[in-house]
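Possible regression after last week's pipeline update?

I re-ran a chain I had predicted before the update to compare outputs. Posting the input and the new output here so someone can diff against the archived version. Not blocking, just want to make sure nothing changed silently.
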Amino acid sequence: MGLRTTADDEVRRIMRMAAARLLQRLPELTDELVTRTRDTDEAYRRMVPTDDHWQSVYDAMRVGIGAILLPLAERRDLQQAERTARRRAEQGLPMDSLLRSYRISAQVMWDGLVGVVAEEEPDSLPVLIRGATKVWHAVDRQAVAAAEAYRDREAEMFGRTAERVQALLDALLEDRADAALARSAAAALDLPELGRYAVVITRLPGRHDHQDDAVRPAALGAMRLLWRMRPDYEVAVALLREAGMEDLTRELRPHVTGCAGISPVVEGLTELGRARRLAELALRTCVGEGPEIALLEDRLPAALVVSQPELAGHLSGVVLRPILALDPADREVLLGTLEAWLRCEGSAMRTAGQLYCHRNTVFNRIRRIEQLTGRSLARPLDIVELALALDAVRLLPVT
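New output (post-update):
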């Protein structure tokens, strides 16, 4: 028992000696920790001002290292961790970034302790190593306290601001955005008034009002997304920054289980109402339950059809009436062939490959389509009429 007490006393002596030396090097340690954190974590660079970050690290290191010199009852490191966590929650720093900074802090502090003992009493390094678990346990306790304080502060802020955030998003998306509203929304939502935005509208397959387990990413790469939930669909405002529409589509695809419509790029918050309407049009060009992502820019003819259903329905009746009058099986064969022919840009070989039939069969069906409709697939204006009429059949409800 006496030997163990002596060994523990020696560990405490070495730890306190090293901690006292580290406190003398506190600015250098702070510089190292801040640099390592900001170099490896974009969120810190983007959301936490450098001066704020440096001062909070300095205070945390001073209290944390100083805690080694104090009795357990007098330690204030947990309170310091809680204060910092609340501040980071208010700044919008992801909790993962906050907790990662504690891992880096533990590495920096331990390396510092080892360095001091190696300089001052190299023969005591084995003694210091016996105290390693105490150091890492102390940092773990700080990280746990920080995580709890972060979650509590986040819940407080969400409870106060969620209703206002949703109201602002609704106003922006429903054509009620003037310059004053845009300024208020920019401040409340931490968004630029002028910037590259797109609106995404998703519809889940077989969605019910209580279905609420879909993944709604708050960020996709450098892009930021703000979601608004509706009973039958979901809307996301995407701040694209420098990303293109192909980047948004690619990053969004793993999260889309149903259908999604994406607007063209607009240049500011006051344009989000128009973008929402165009995203709805894009979504209406989807056939079936997906997964499918429709960029409006790629679906303009189909969007024209769904935006003018009465005229489009009349067009399909005029152009395709003889085909629509056939029995269902025969009608679907001809419409499917026309659809494949248009998709394959008039290549009989590619159309035959898609339909698993001989190219002569394709030619025979095309001739029959031309005879029934009185249109020629060799005339550009007739192709336009046939393509729009086919879109109307596929996209508009049967009346």
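Follow-up from reviewer: compared with the archived run. Residues 297 and 325 are 33 Å apart (CA to CA). Marking as no regression found.
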